[in-house]
Amino acid sequence: MKFKPHQYQEHAIQHIIKSEAAGLFLDMGMGKTVSTLTAVSDLLHDYFDVLKVLVIAPLRVAEDTWSREAEKWDHTQYLRVSKVLGPEHQRVSALHAPADIYVINRENVEWLVNYYGKKWPFDMVVIDELSSFKSSKAKRFRALKKVRPFIKRIVGLTGTPAPNSLIDLWPQMYLLDQGERLGKTVTSYREKYFQPDKRNRTIIYSWKLRDGAEQSIHKKISDICISMQAKDWLDLPKRINNIMKVTLPAKAKEKYKQLEKELLLPFAGGDVVADTAAVLSNKLMQLANGAVYDENGKIQEIHDEKLNKLEDIVEAANGNPILVFYCYQHDLSRIQNRFKNARTLNGSKDIKAWNAGKIEMLLAHPASTGHGLNLQDGGHIIVWFGMTWSLELYQQANARLDRQGQKQSVIVHHLVTEGTVDEDVMRALEGKALGQDALLEAVKARLEKLA
Questions:
Q1: Which intervals hold domain Helicase ATP-binding (predicted)?
Q2: Which residue intervals of 51-87 are DSSP H helices?
Q3: pTM of the entire structure?
Q4: CATH superfamily, domain at 7-230
């Protein structure tokens, strides 16, 4: 696929190329990965400025996202990505494999630093989710701090670097500039910009910003850190549709194929039966989400991949509120079991709390968020956990945030399970096909292929 960068993406690419230490604060779905890969490609093979690149990322992102993005775009397909994951012998083997980019999960940063010591070979490091290095006491921070003098170029990627307190910003900035802007120690940073808030004699429980400190901090880091939301002159799109691919585990894929082909999926407590194309499409959509109702109405859980992907989105959102649309009751119960702080949209109290920024994750069925419901003050991130075949419901639901009064670019994440009916639904929605007829046609087409 040919990459045609938006103006804000081109700005991000040039910022990385021109800055040996670069912080890029850009929401998930706005192209952080492809922008960084483009800059890495240029620095490796156009400017010849770096030789070996390390990407530190959350485990699931390290496993899939960076290699998938490199393969997706024409100009980055040539980049060799080695995944330094798994047992130690696999990690060592991956480190010695010829590659342009080495990707490791952040839990293994300490191991990597100990493995190389002073012979640290990576002259460029990209930290995907810089905010996961917000604790100066964490082993991963202390390990990376040791080798920071050996790193020529460093890039920190995140959405919101300090969602809870600007105290969290110091370790992240230290990894970028080694204390040049905010001080060499967290103690000096805290004393300069904060004052005790809640305390009990000698014990300080929390800190609050001194007058003018927030503006001063932002000014200090503004030359190496760019936030796309803060740059009003950038050509940010009003809404960004992001398709997040979900891969079925082997056993779940077998069950999906069996149901699709035989219209039957046997379980000990009751079978999943699909006797018409409409029922089959419904059951396949459920299974793609991770669970399915059997003939007795009992929930049969199949996989957790969409829950894992939603967890990744929550982490990347860094405290920004998320509106999640679900389709089935078992989707709702499984999300609630995983995310204890999630709250269901039931009435005016929930709407008021959401718009006041008091709800981290709001769960809603698209049919319950019809015309006239204003939720734009509470957030700008939508996640479709399960797809809907109704174009009307899809458009109405998105319009709860994507409407007049919204101050940020709305990001709509779609969790689309590969090789399933989810892909057919997504194509129908993108083509603005109306109603379930379009989905049934897609299901019939799949069945014809299997015949």
A1: 13-179
A2: 59-60, 66-72
A3: 0.82
A4: Tandem AAA-ATPase domain (3.40.50.10810)
